[in-house]
Design a protein that fits this description.
By secondary structure, the protein is mostly helical. The chain is 81% helix and 0% strand.
Length: 91
């Protein structure tokens, strides 16, 4: 039961985060995405969106730390999210 709740919880948090993200409400998106990653740390999409949120909030070093989680991880480096993270970082 717990995992089921966890998965639906993650999905709900993701949806709420995406809604805020799409509305350019960066702080709100960060709040939801952070909780999402607490439940499911391995979520490349959310890691990428966290980077974009922090970039838009003017916190470049935090943004880079999220992008690097994708760029430096062989699992994600050559995926859509790794590529997007490299583009955001400017290389």
């Amino acid at each position: 039961h717990n995992t089921e709740f966890n998965e639906s919880g993650v999905q709900n948090l993701y949806n709420l985060g995406r809604t805020a993200y799409d509305a350019r409400e960066w702080e709100t998106a960060v709040t939801y995405f952070t909780r999402c990653l607490q439940l499911q740390p391995d979520y490349p999409e959310v890691i990428f969106y966290m980077g974009v949120c922090y970039q838009n909030l003017g916190d470049w070093s935090t943004a880079v730390s999220y992008y690097n989680q994708l760029i430096d991880n062989p699992t994600y480096a050559n995926t859509t999210w790794g590529t997007a993270a490299r583009q955001q970082r400017g290389y």
